[in-house]
């Protein structure tokens, strides 16, 4: 037995590693999930069999309750709510780590290096717990999503954090002073809340990835406390995953961590969106259907609005209808379209769009000049040419999808109101741009219906397709907020 | 060698490995990746079992451990199941390929 | 925990890490990669020092250790220097780029 | 001190890891070498400072002697001899590992798991030692390079290996039986020699990579014996590197390990190369210069012959001359061109060809149909269309550079004799193929000289370049072995 248990743990760690390795491509991803599950199973069995573990009843009850809660969460969470679920799950994970650290402290009161690890574990655990709960609240819109700021906020937060660190160090030096522990706990919990208050709801995904990283580090620290390699490894894998994702996100938004954590960005620029009354061309779904039908190549740019409107299934229907008519349809996916990494990919996959039709920014940008139509569905910042042209813009330097280079640009959104970054988009005022105002799902439904009615362009006797519309003839109206 | 020293070796290797592995994950799969790492972080369940199951565990350990097991099992179960659910959505359309 | 058990952990992680790292090396650099890993394998020098420098090392240890230090130092020195020499050859032509 | 030394080792390991990480691209490769050097320095210092180490004089003398041998090797080895140097260096490394294991056995006679590691260490160490020496001998042509086979060879080898394993196991069971150790040693040494005898010189690179892997494993095993993590890690990194390179090589040759180790491949097919007298077109360097000058795009395919002839510098001159004349010149690098991984890249880099002109097989294959000239210099197997067309060919299924799709194919080689795989190449007999017989360096020298004499095609008043030659007018002669 004594030589089997360590082997189980090593195999469990290998399972987690393989899980991440196989996650690298869709073809092997399922195998990855299975490897991860196998790893977890081995880890749990390997732990239950350890000779120190003698008391099973509470464990089994907790297992049962946890599964009873976990299964419905897994099956009932709509795909659009995945960010929230991720947040709440970080809260749970961090809470577990923090509580284990607390229990260990009161039971064994370790010293030296181990106590240092324990302090780190509980600090990160508790702050990630409350911070993730706050993030959940903002994403689920239980809390106001706009950043809440007040003068001197950063100073207050930093001093609080400083105080927590000081007490933490004091605990490491003299672990016997148990009266300090509850204070330390409270400060960590409080800091988690204060950390999130000034951050806008739209910045949550980056913050969540960062919290993922903290939760991972907390688990690693627990591994040092309990002298358990498996915990150290799983925590380190988790920690690096969160860190990399947040780096990818902030890079794709061309922003720094400090800016996200202390910038209260969403607030700052919300005011920049004064609806200057400039004329735009708008079109009806029938007109849009005609144009799409006569195009040879269409590039669809989905964004956050598609997610909100849950329009992915209708979009698939449009894709099918156009493909059947011989139109070449591709999807251009910006790395931060939507509100979490890979958001669009998941939604489109859910709606059965084949993933070989989805293209990353670098792959597709060169194709926009050849595209007849760029169909933008509820995306805004990710196609805003200001990022390239206006050096003073808050999104200056952020890489964008160059939809403005397509021959015709069609935009589905409800109004002229801006997106996450809160800035106006010149794309909408271009001569070749047509606005299709309305909810993404509703507009797409109409277009699909109209497409059924329009006779196929290829059947017009004219073998080769040609764009026969002149955009400038469409209704011109003055842009106003519609919502 | 002290045991925390071994811990540092393991941590260093695992952190490097994590970076290399995650950097390779296609952006297509970033959402399921997040839920997978979530599920993996439910490994805290191991620590929770250890403190709850111990012989003569004090009530405090029992209570905290119980909550910790509950919380991590929730993560574990929902994390893997939802990852699986998401992954299943990703498929090439077979008929189109042939 | 027995010390060889830790060794197994470390070995597993390092082997995975090695695979991930090497798979990424551009074929352009496979030759210097070979000489670099050669140089790294000169790490045997550590073991050689340990057996040679020990207090009251028997003559056999001294002789074998001496040869081993000599052999690995040769590797170490020539491995790094030649890798460096090869790497220096790889350059973009600057004037062409601008 | 006691807490500094382990830190030095951990940092050393991190240095090795970063070294491999930064080796991934030319831009960071030098940093990688420095990280590796720093790691090694830390490792050596960290070891010298250990309290067990008290006896310095022998160590320093050995250091000195080793450096005295190592420095000249590093600076005097010509680039074409890098494979041999690699082989001899594996021999040294493996010998070190084996001797340390031997010393440790006689000094401490470990038991159990540790003894198992020791047996593995010495087995792999000794066999890699002799095998690498043999490989060195074949590559340096001190030994006959053709595979030496006899009936029952595989059986002899396997029984010998089996015997070594049995004695090894016996040693693990009762380590006190010291009389077995010399037998075990001898068997391992012998097996190393016998392993290489049946393998052809041209298969050596793959074998060397495999030996690299063994040497790494041996170092790892030493780490288990001496309870030293740094050794375990460095050995594992090494071991995986060798394994991956040999997998890449055998995959690019479309062969399996077993086939290389037991196949005696080079021998088998040497007989297939009967010079069936078929006519080929041959041309003079002047004619070649004219054709090259009038081309717009030239793709150069270098091979083993370029390496043997040391023609890389002349090739660079040709590249310069053509580029100056406005010809677009690219280099197509097959993964197993030459005799070791990355062989062509190093030689061309040595001759200052900018590495952004070198293209891997997958990148360039689609460009051959658009190329005016494919200039093949001492390459044979890597452009042999039989790999794609002839299912019975020994290289069937090996991915090739599709030089045969170029408008004109020019081949520089000394004769009609085949390359490493020993099979005829239909490419040479195509109507659009011109053979330039001679040593690669000599032929390239003449072409470069002629190019100086030919007036520039673009200056012929005719703005656009055009191919003005008709290949079929060139001398036709009957193919015969020339060497
Ligand atoms: N993906 C990530 O990981 C991540 C993380 C953090 C931040 N972000 C940020 O999120 C932004 C994402 O850009 P994005 O272009 O996808 O979105 P966006 O810039 O936020 O724009 C979304 C647009 O969708 C429209 N919309 C909302 N509901 C709609 C509905 N029901 N039907 C139709 N349209 C609707 C909105 O206009 P109307 O109100 O006029 O309809 C809005 O302009 C980026 O700025 C990015 O930096 C992303
Ligand atoms: N790169 C690796 O890692 C590696 C490892 C193991 C095996 N291999 C094998 O090596 C082969 C490499 O293919 P390859 O196309 O590069 O070479 P190859 O097929 O061996 O052909 C080399 C050609 O160069 C010619 N040549 C020799 N000396 C010459 C000189 N001085 N001047 C001009 N030409 C000369 C020879 O013809 P003449 O005698 O008529 O001149 C011969 O046909 C593949 O079969 C591959 O599988 C490669």
What would you note in describing this structure?
The complex is a heterotetramer, with 2 copies of chain A (483 residues) and 2 copies of chain B (98 residues). Chain A is of the alpha/beta class and 483 residues long. Among the domains of chain A are: 77-125 and 148-187 and 211-241, no CATH class; 275-482, TPP-binding domain (Rossmann fold), CATH 3.40.50. Chain A is built from 18 helices and 8 strands. Chain A has helices at residues 4-22, 26-48, 57-76, 82-108, 112-139, 153-173, 180-196, 204-226, 229-252, 257-263, 265-270, 285-294, 304-309, 312-324, 343-350, 361-364, 386-389, 440-453, and strands at 279-282, 297-302, 328-333, 358-360, 373-377, 408-413, 433-437, 476-478. Chain A has an 8-stranded mixed β-sheet with strand order 4-3-2-5-6-7-1-8. In chain A, α17 (386-389) links the parallel β5 (373-377) and β6 (408-413). In chain A, α4 packs parallel to α8 (204-226). The model of chain A is unreliable at 264-275, 458-470 and 477-483 (pLDDT under 50). With 98 residues, chain B is mostly helical. Chain B has 5 helices and no strands. Chain B has helices at 3-23, 30-41, 44-53, 59-89, 94-97. The radius of gyration of chain B is 19 Å and the shape is flat. Chains in contact: A-B, A-C, B-C, B-D, C-D. Chains A and B meet through α1, α2, α3, α4 and α5 of A and α1, α2, α3 and α4 of B. One NADP nicotinamide-adenine-dinucleotide phosphate binds at residues 202-203, 205-206, 249, 253, 303-305, 308-309, 336-341, 343, 378-382, 412-415, 417-421, 439-440, 483 of chain A.
Task: Write the topology of this structure.
The complex is a heterotetramer, with 2 copies of chain A (483 residues) and 2 copies of chain B (98 residues).
Chain A: H1 4-22, H2 26-48, H3 57-76, H4 82-108, H5 112-139, H6 153-173, H7 180-196, H8 204-226, H9 229-252, H10 257-263, H11 265-270, E1 279-282, H12 285-294, E2 297-302, H13 304-309, H14 312-324, E3 328-333, H15 343-350, E4 358-360, H16 361-364, E5 373-377, H17 386-389, E6 408-413, E7 433-437, H18 440-453, E8 476-478
Parallel strand pairs in A: 1-7, 2-3, 2-5, 3-4, 5-6, 6-7
Antiparallel strand pairs in A: 1-8
Chain B: H1 3-23, H2 30-41, H3 44-53, H4 59-89, H5 94-97
Helix pairs in contact in B: 2-4, 3-4
Bound molecules: NADP nicotinamide-adenine-dinucleotide phosphate (2 copies).
């Amino acid at each position: 037995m004594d030589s089997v248990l360590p082997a189980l743990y090593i195999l469990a760690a290998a399972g987690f590693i393989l899980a991440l390795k196989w996650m690298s491509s869709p073809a092997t991803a399922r195998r990855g999930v299975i490897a991860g599950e196998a790893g977890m199973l081995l880890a749990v069995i390997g732990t239950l069999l350890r000779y120190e573990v003698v008391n099973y009843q509470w464990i089994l009850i907790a297992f049962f309750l946890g599964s009873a809660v976990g299964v419905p969460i897994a099956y009932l969470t709509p795909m659009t709510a995945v960010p929230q679920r991720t947040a709440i799950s970080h809260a749970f994970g961090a809470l577990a780590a923090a509580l284990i650290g607390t229990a260990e402290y009161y039971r064994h009161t370790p010293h030296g290096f181990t106590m240092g690890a324990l302090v780190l574990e509980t600090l990160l655990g508790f702050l990630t717990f409350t911070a993730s709960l706050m993030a959940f609240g903002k994403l689920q819109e239980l809390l106001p999503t706009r950043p809440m700021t007040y003068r001197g906020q950063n100073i207050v937060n930093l001093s609080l954090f400083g105080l927590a660190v000081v007490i933490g160090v004091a605990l490491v030096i003299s672990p016997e002073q148990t009266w300090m522990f509850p204070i330390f706990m409270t400060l960590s919990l409080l800091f988690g809340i204060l950390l999130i208050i000034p951050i806008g709801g739209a910045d949550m995904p980056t913050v969540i990835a960062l919290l993922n990283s903290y939760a991972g580090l907390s688990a690693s620290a627990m591994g040092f406390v309990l002298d358990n390699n498996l915990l150290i490894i799983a925590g380190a894998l988790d920690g690096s995953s969160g860190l990399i994702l947040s780096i990818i996100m902030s890079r794709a938004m061309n922003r720094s961590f400090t800016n996200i954590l202390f910038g209260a960005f969403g607030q700052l620029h919300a005011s920049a969106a004064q609806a200057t009354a400039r004329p735009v061309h708008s079109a009806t779904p029938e007109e849009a259907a005609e144009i799409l039908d006569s195009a040879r190549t269409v590039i669809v740019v989905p964004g956050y609005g598609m997610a909100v409107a849950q329009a992915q299934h209708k979009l698939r229907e449009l894709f099918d209808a156009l493909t059947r008519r011989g139109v070449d349809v591709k999807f251009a996916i910006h790395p931060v379209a939507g509100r979490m990494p890979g958001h669009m990919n998941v939604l489109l996959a859910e709606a059965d769009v084949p993933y070989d039709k989805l293209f990353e920014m670098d792959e597709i940008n060169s194709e926009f000049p050849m595209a007849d139509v760029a169909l933008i569905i509820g995306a805004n910042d990710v196609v805003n040419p200001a990022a390239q042209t206006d050096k003073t813009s808050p999104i200056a330097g952020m890489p964008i999808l160059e939809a403005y280079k397509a021959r015709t640009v069609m935009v589905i959104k409800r109004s002229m109101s801006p997106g996450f970054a809160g800035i106006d988009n010149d794309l909408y005022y271009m001569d070749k741009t047509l606005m299709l105002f309305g909810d993404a799902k509703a507009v797409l439904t109409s277009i699909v219906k109209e497409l059924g009615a329009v006779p196929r362009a290829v059947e017009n006797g004219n073998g080769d397709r040609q764009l026969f519309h002149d955009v400038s003839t469409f209704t011109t109206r003055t842009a106003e907020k519609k919502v | 060698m002290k045991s925390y020293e071994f811990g540092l070796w393991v941590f260093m290797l695992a952190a490097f490995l994590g970076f290399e592995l995650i950097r390779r994950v296609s952006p297509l799969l970033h959402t399921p990746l997040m839920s997978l790492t979530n599920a993996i972080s439910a490994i805290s369940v191991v620590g929770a079992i250890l403190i709850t199951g111990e012989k003569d565990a004090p009530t405090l350990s029992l209570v905290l451990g119980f909550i910790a097991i509950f919380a991590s099992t929730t993560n574990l179960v929902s994390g893997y199941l939802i990852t699986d659910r998401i992954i299943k959505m990703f498929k090439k359309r077979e008929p189109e390929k042939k």
